[in-house]
Amino acid sequence: MKVHVPEMFALKSKVATHSKAWKVLVVDDRLSVQKATCLLLGKMSYAGSGFETIESYSFKDSKKILKEGNDIALVILDVHLEGNDIGLQMMNYIRRDLQNDTVRVILRTGYPTLFPEEAITKEYHIDGCLFEEENTFSKLEFEIIGAIQTYRKILSINNYLEGFASGVAIEIKNSLNMFGLNFSTLKNELFEVRNIHRDENAEYFTELINKGVHICKRSDMIVDLMLRNIRKARIDDKCFKHIRMSSIVQQSIEDFAYSSAYENDKFELDFYQDFTFRGDENSFVYVLFNLFKNSLFYLVDKPEGKIQIRLELGTDQNALYFKDNGIGIPKDQVNNIFEGFRSQSEIENTGLGLAFCKQVMRDFGGDIICQSDYGYWTQFILTFPRCS
């Protein structure tokens, strides 16, 4: 029997270099400040590269620039842009909406008592806070170089982690390809056996093999999603299709690798208000797998633990409610669970998964939010635009 062997993937080495200019977004509605900053940056260089200044005079323009440009190294931001707290809204947009933890940020303010540097630094993950009375060229230059050094180090670490994770993922993909090949070979052999022994009942084994092939393909696709997560790549909406929600939820529950049938019994499903959404099937399966994993982790020692999944039709958008009666999440941590690189000590067992879930839902044109009553329950609400 001739067997087709799939092409094995190899990992290409990736060297972290930076030969282009460091891009700096200056967000300030004062022309004089823009020109002075641009003049300073034009005279500076770091690690053999100069600086490229991008001027923005409004919150709206800044959001567009940041969304489209993923290679901006530094944002110099006026806290009082267009109002008292627009600058801080911009920080929320960068860190929480865009989930961009790489770009560095320096704040400028003329009101040090209203915006204490230590509190802002801890809350918004910034690199510096300059007050108007001390906003000299030498001080600003010192802050800029420090921020760029941090940015460069983050790029280097991210490149190393991406290379390492890619190597692991590729080895897993190669193994999955071999598993899938073996399942296909068994299926062909079983077909030959059935032709010889027609009275033998082989349907059960055929079903098991088909399921094995399906799981291998699904796992291979999930590894691809993990790689895309690491590389911060967005989903191409050209691959979107209309998907029946009840079907994909049910199939995902069947595909999820439970440690026992006892875990499967924890699900309570309400598909009365079923709906269709437009998106990428494998990406959404990965979202569901992350929710399954996190909930089951906390319900493992809770006999009465349940996971309730309910669908709801809306006027402008539809929703999936995913609720468990586990230990819940502390109130001061609920807003942070979708940030990448949360440590185990801050929020147990979330890892990078929930940050990726957030990005997937945003790519679908929807969103995911979390509600929780610590000690009692946690609920995720996933919203989807209505399909015409």
Radius of gyration: 25 Å
The overall pLDDT, averaged over residues, is: 76
Distance between the termini: 50 Å
Given this structure, which CATH class of the largest domain is correct?
Answer: Alpha Beta
How much helical structure, as a percent, in the residues? Answer: 40-55%
Biggest sheet character: 6 strands, mixed
Count of DSSP-assigned helices? 10
The CATH homology group name of the largest domain: Histidine kinase-like ATPase, C-terminal domain
By CATH, the topology of the largest domain is Heat Shock Protein 90
| Global geometry | elongated
Query: What spatial order of strands do you see in the largest sheet?
Result: 2-3-1-4-5-6
State the total count of DSSP E strands.
13
Order of helices and strands: EHEEHEHEHEHHEHHEEHEEHEE
